Each structure stands twice: as structure tokens, then as C-alpha cells.
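Continuing the series of single-chain predictions for the mutant panel. This is the parent chain; the variants come on the following pages.
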Amino acid sequence: MTDTLDSPAITSISRLTVPEIADLPQALQDQLASLERQLGYIPNWARAFALGGAHAARFNDYLLALLDPNSGLLPYVDREILATVTSAENGCSYCRLNHAGSLGEAIGDHKLGTRVAIDYREVRELSARHRTLAEFASKLALHPGEVTDADIDVLRELGLTDEAIYEAVHVVSAFAAANRFSIFLQVTPDDQFFN
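Parent structure:
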């Protein structure tokens, strides 16, 4: 069953309460309606995160803007690589499945997107640029105190400006937070991930 704006809340998608859509702040209701229009369903992460009310709406604004294909300093596929690897490294099954599909669409190869989401280290076909971004995402997601000036220099050698590097940090950091929310809530992957 897919949760829509006019169906009852699905409580089995989270280990905490999933609020009724009608009880949410208007900004959050509008976000859920927008996601439903774009995707044809409301993702379980959005329904589960909605427990945060106004905080969830602000977080969603931030998170969704980072992966807007029509904005950003970094190309969309670069941002998806960062989000996918971050989710994989953090062991977030929901986000890993979600981003495997999104990355597959962005690069035009769903098999490759899935392989990156399983373990980018085993994907020989990754370009030098995407391997460097994946390594950066892994290090920042798991060991942020170990990121060195040399790591930043490698990103600059790819042609990234300091602003683009900082955008990469935003993507990794925001998705690391989303991973922690999803893992804690034990968000059930959407049926759509398996079609």
C-alpha cells in the first residue's frame, strides 16, 4: 500500500509515530504534496521524518535543495555520488536503496548506480573524478577529523572551487544526518525501490 495525501498514515514504516498528514504544519503538508506530484507517491522517509513537524519542514527544504538537479555549483551527478556513498558508508539501507536508483537515473545506468551504492571501491568503471568524490564522501562521513588539506587540494585539482567544495561538504553532512534519522527510525524502504 502506498501512502497518499488522502489515505491513512502507515505506522509500520517507522519505529516511532507517523503523524496524520492533516495534523502537520502547512509547509510540511505542501512538501509532501509536492513530493507526491513529482514521484507519484510520498516516500517513507518523508512520512517518517514528518514527526519532527516544523523542524522536518526546514530540514526537508535544506535536503531537497541540495539534490535539486537544476541548482547547485556541482553537477547533479556529483552530488548524487556524494549522497549515495555517504549513505552506503553509514549503512543506511533506506537511503542506500533510494540513492542507488537516483544515481542510476543520473548516470543512465541503474546497475552501476546500484553497484556504487553497495561499495564504490569495487566499481572499476568510476571516473577519476567520481572516485575522488566518493573517497572524500567516505572520509568525511565516517572520519571527519581526518580530512586533511591534502584531501582538499585533490578536490581543487579536479577543478572544484572552494565554494563547490563547501557544497560537497553540505551534501555529505546533510545526508549523514538523514542517514542517522532513517537508521534510528528504521524507515521501511518504499515498495517502488523494488520495481
